[in-house]
Structures are given as structure tokens and as C-alpha cells.
Design brief:
The protein is an alpha/beta fold. The protein contains nine helices and seven strands; from the N terminus they run H-H-H-E-H-E-H-E-E-H-E-H-H-H-E-E.
Length: about 240
């Protein structure tokens, strides 16, 4: 059964939101580096010190992409969209701690819920695609983002991009990553079982590229990789 936006959001309940920052930094080696580089890639694409409005899709949890972009570009403003109320609240707490709430508009819901005439200079979609079941849902969120971007605006896409079971060495290394951070053998086994059942990532980098092409974006440049994870910058085609 394919997940709807609602039950995808339900995966990120209060318990998961509360542990998201710590868990993400273990699961993704280089979590903060990826967010920092995403900010650098957008800044390089848009031009230094240019004022910009940035759409951040799936912003809940750490809000780290906003924090990284805001530190690099003090004139940028952000619209943060997330369908999970606990995750968006967790992001709001991080933004408040970093004095960024005044620069950020928070929207509980989906990109489709934004006003049709709202347009943005750039967007990010980080850690989202692999939580959406099937290519139809993945293309839909990309197409919805495209509809709100200005011509040739850049988009950052980041997430897991292998069928997990197809990469046994990477999966074993991922388990060792948890052991490295103190997980017991039983906890590692539970984590591996959860990743095998809990997401539907694109099955290759080529599949990610095809999804972006199908949604109206151009060729993407990969700028970060960590085990199953990749991050790319693409642009809206005219």
C-alpha cells in the first residue's frame, strides 16, 4: 500500500521529533557538512549577498538547512513547510534559539497548500524523497516545488538513493556507524530492520536524476555523498 502525505507525516510523531537531531547525525555521517555545503551551493548559484526567498520543504526537526543558509546569507528569508506538527515545532524551537523566527515563515502542511502566486528564488528538499512511497509521490513533490520556483531557480535535493538491501556492504557499514556510537548488537539489528522496512529511496543516482528530469528540472550536480546518501543541485528548466 502506498503511503499518503498524511501517514508519511505520522511517521514523524513527537517521540521521533524529539530524537531527530541526535539520530540524524548518527545515521548520516557528515549531516552538518551536507547542510553547510547545501548553503554554499545555493549561495554560489544565486550570487553573494543577493536578497532571496528560499522555500525549505521538509524543514521539520533540526531546521539545520535554514540555520546554515541564514548564517552565510543574512539577507535571505525562508518559508519552512512540513506536514508533521511535532517536527515543525522542533524546527521552530531551533529557529528561536538561533534568532531566526523573524526571518522564517512556518507552514504546517504541504507545498500544494501554499498560495498559488507564491514564488521563490530557490528551494531545498533534504531528507524527504526516500520517505515517499513510489515514483508518483516523489515526482509530485518535485513538480509542486517547481510550480513555486522562479525561472532557472536552483533546487537542492538530498536523501538516500539506493535500495538498501542491494548494497550489503553499505548496509553493514551503516550498522557499524551505530555501533561506533554505542549501540548494542541487538540495537544495531533493530536499526537495520527499521531502515529496511521504513523507507522507499530511489534505487540509484540515475533514478534521482530521472525523477528531477521528469518533474521539469535540468541535469544535477552532486556535491555530497555518505553511504546511502547523496546531495545534488539542479535548476528549474524553462
Amino acid at each position: 500500500m502506498k503511503s499518503t502525505p498524511l501517514n508519511t507525516a505520522e511517521k514523524f510523531d513527537t517521540s521521533r521529533a524529539n530524537e531527530y537531531g541526535q539520530q540524524s547525525r548518527i545515521a548520516l555521517a557528515g549531516y552538518d557538512a551536507c547542510q553547510d555545503l547545501a548553503a554554499c551551493m545555493l549561495a554560489a548559484s544565486l550570487g553573494h549577498a543577493r536578497s532571496a526567498n528560499i522555500l525549505v520543504v521538509g524543514a521539520g526537526g533540526t531546521a539545520q538547512e535554514i540555520i546554515a543558509m541564514a548564517a552565510l546569507e543574512p539577507t535571505w528569508r525562508f518559508t519552512a513547510v512540513d506536514p508533521s506538527e511535532p517536527m515543525l515545532e522542533a524546527a521552530a524551537q531551533q529557529l528561536k534559539a538561533n534568532n531566526l523566527l523573524e526571518r522564517t515563515s512556518l507552514h504546517l502542511g504541504h507545498v500544494e497548500d501554499l498560495a498559488a502566486d507564491e514564488s521563490y528564488d530557490a528551494a531545498t528538499l533534504i531528507g524527504v524523497l526516500h520517505h515517499l512511497d513510489g515514483d508518483v509521490a516523489k515526482r509530485q513533490v518535485l513538480q509542486s516545488i517547481r510550480a513555486h520556483l522562479k525561472p532557472e531557480a536552483p533546487l537542492i535535493v538530498a536523501g538516500n538513493h539506493y535500495a538498501y538491501a542491494s548494497q550489503p556492504l553499505l548496509l553493514a557499514a551503516w550498522g557499524q556507524r551505530w555501533r561506533q556510537h554505542g549501540a548494542s548488537p541487538d540495537e544495531v539489528k533493530a536499526k537495520l530492520g527499521k531502515i529496511l522496512q521504513g523507507a522507499d529511496p530511489p534505487h540509484s543516482e540515475a533514478a534521482v536524476q530521472q525523477l528531477m528530469h521528469d518533474a521539469g528540472f535540468g541535469d544535477a550536480t552532486r556535491f555530497f555523498s555518505s553511504l546511502f546518501w547523496g546531495a545534488w543541485l539542479t535548476r528549474k528548466t524553462t
